[in-house]
Hints:
By secondary structure, this protein is of the alpha/beta class. The chain contains eight helices and six strands. The protein has a six-stranded mixed beta sheet, with helices on both faces.
Amino acid sequence: MAAPAPDPLVALGREIADCRACPRLVTWREDVAREKRAAFREEDYWGRPVPGFGDPHARLLIVGLAPAAHGANRTGRVFTGDRSGDWLYAALHRSGYANSPHSVRADDGLALTDAYVVAAVRCAPPANRPTPAERDRCLPFLARELDLLDRVEVVVVLGGFAYEALWKVLGDRGDALPRPRPKFGHGVEVDTPRATILGCYHPSQQNTFTGRLTEPMLDAVFARARALTG
């Protein structure tokens, strides 16, 4: 008997993990994985593009910027092993989307219900700043995920970079988008034919340490996502 066809999201995740389309990002992510941070010297780094993670039947999609050099680039799971992930998954747990508030490593048992998490750019970039060309080469992955995650009704974008990336994907799909594009901000809400976009400041240390993003602010975004999806 022929082997069953692989799950489309799983197959896409493998394709993402094998991508070598951006020479600068390939060099950076692999150099980081070789050199390592002293605290993780004994660990094997992932050092590859990072696929999405979560419930394939999700109604909520969360889009971040890119993997952290010693976070997802180390662990192989998006928003896992860094402070941003600590904030994100704790909030998802408080709002009922995650079975645990902790995201430490890819085999830690964390599971999401009704939520799926991706990054706009799948490789860790130098200084956490992908170029526009690198972003655009990665966006077809997000477009394909939007097609496969056909129950998604709400997309939470973590930061302006993710907002612009999603907007480009939706525009390239031919969706009738509001003009002019609403300015990104925390709590901004934009209705599009594909899904409702909710803006949220990125849970980076720059935002959480300064109080620009607080736990109640993050919780309010996911409460609104829950309300919109019924």
